[in-house]
């Protein structure tokens, strides 16, 4: 059981090293031990696992991951924090590798190959909210060997990832996430679980990576171009949204005929189409 001593511990570390959370790195340190426990439980971390942690911060969750996992690889962009983690806070964690890099610039596939023999890792992260989507999609699109991603994200983003067709939260991110994974909203997290307090509610979401995509398309890039165009102007019908979209060559009639063959209204908007239907219309066009 993780004791909830994290607020005092975090304050102590910040005072000891005269640290201030850096806004440019989106640093909001998690200080609730019970939430840390929920994240690690949701990730299903065991002693056989290699965990990739993105943004360990001051090591609040890292030390608990090291206690549960066979190996932990932590990527931290803040050079000052890396020095403190290595020389003091996490110096006793013998199963930990800390890398001082921007995760968006790291060859994660090569890192996993080097550190874990190419075997799938479990990604666990309290992500900077301003770059949540680029990190998630980067990991998916580069086909990094992963079992799952268990992430602390802005609640609104978590709801979008797990949304159903036809709902207000459903969008391009939903479709992309469902192409690569199965989404599960594990917990909502209030603002007072962080230091400093963010301005938004947060949530823990687990994305279990699918062994293969649930749909087959000849041109994945074209399908996602259609998805992007469909949600780029949500109020437009799919016919109007696709007509002038970059990289898509079709007429209103083409879209109308495709929708009709799928049993959908020619006035349908993209927000009502499922992943399977986006794949189908991509093939028809």
Mean pLDDT over the residues = 89
Range of strand content: 15-25%
Q: What is the domain total for the residues?
A: 2
User: How are the strands of the largest sheet arranged?
Assistant: 4-3-2-5-6-9-7
Number of helices: 12
CATH topology of the largest domain: Rossmann fold
Radius of gyration using CA atoms only: 21 Å
Q: Quick one: CATH superfamily of the largest domain?
A: Vaccinia Virus protein VP39
The shape is elongated
**Alpha-carbon distance between the termini?**
55 Å
Q: Would you give an account of this structure?
A:
- Strand 3 (71-76), helix 4 and strand 4 (96-100) form a beta-alpha-beta unit.
- Helix 9 crosses helix 12.
- The chain has 2 domains: 6-209, Vaccinia Virus protein VP39 (Rossmann fold), CATH 3.40.50; 220-284, Helicase, Ruva Protein, domain 3 (Orthogonal Bundle).
- The chain has helices at 6-16, 33-43, 62-68, 79-89, 108-116, 132-141, 155-161, 172-180, 220-232, 238-243, 252-261, 275-284; strands at residues 29-30, 50-54, 71-76, 96-100, 121-126, 146-154, 181-189, 194-195, 202-209.
- By secondary structure, the protein is an alpha/beta fold.
Topology:
Elements: H1 6-16, E1 29-30, H2 33-43, E2 50-54, H3 62-68, E3 71-76, H4 79-89, E4 96-100, H5 108-116, E5 121-126, H6 132-141, E6 146-154, H7 155-161, H8 172-180, E7 181-189, E8 194-195, E9 202-209, H9 220-232, H10 238-243, H11 252-261, H12 275-284
Parallel strand pairs: 2-3, 2-5, 3-4, 5-6
Antiparallel strand pairs: 1-8, 6-9, 7-9
In short:
With 285 residues, the protein is of the alpha/beta class. The chain has helices spanning 6-16, 33-43, 62-68, 79-89, 108-116, 132-141, 155-161, 172-180, 220-232, 238-243, 252-261, 275-284, and strands at 29-30, 50-54, 71-76, 96-100, 121-126, 146-154, 181-189, 194-195, 202-209.
């Amino acid at each position: 059981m993780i004791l909830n001593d994290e607020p005092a511990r975090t304050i102590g570390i910040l005072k000891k090293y005269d640290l201030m959370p850096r806004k440019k790195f989106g640093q909001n340190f998690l200080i609730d031990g019970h939430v840390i426990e929920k994240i690690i439980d949701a990730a299903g971390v065991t002693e056989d696992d290699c965990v990739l942690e993105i943004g360990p911060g001051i090591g609040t969750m890292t030390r608990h991951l090291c206690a549960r996992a066979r190996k932990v690889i932590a990527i931290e962009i803040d050079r000052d924090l890396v020095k403190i983690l290595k020389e003091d806070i996490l110096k006793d964690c013998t199963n930990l590798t800390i890398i001082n890099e921007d995760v968006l610039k790291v060859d994660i596939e090569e890192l996993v190959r080097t550190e874990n023999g190419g075997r799938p890792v479990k990604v666990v992260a309290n992500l900077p909210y301003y770059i949540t989507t680029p990190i998630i999609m980067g990991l998916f699109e580069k086909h990094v060997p992963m079992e799952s991603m268990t992430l602390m994200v802005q609640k609104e983003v978590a709801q979008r990832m797990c949304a159903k067709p036809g709902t207000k939260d459903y969008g391009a991110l939903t479709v992309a996430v469902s192409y690569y994974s199965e989404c599960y909203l594990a917990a909502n997290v209030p603002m007072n679980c962080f230091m400093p307090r963010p301005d938004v509610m947060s949530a823990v979401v687990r994305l279990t990576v699918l062994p293969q995509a649930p749909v087959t398309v000849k041109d994945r890039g074209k399908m996602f171009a259609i998805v992007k165009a469909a949600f780029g102007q949500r109020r437009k019908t799919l016919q109007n949204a696709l007509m002038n979209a970059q990289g898509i060559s079709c007429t209103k009639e083409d879209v109308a005929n495709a929708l009709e063959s799928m049993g959908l209204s020619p006035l349908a908007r993209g927000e009502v189409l499922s992943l399977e239907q986006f794949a189908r219309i991509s093939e028809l066009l």
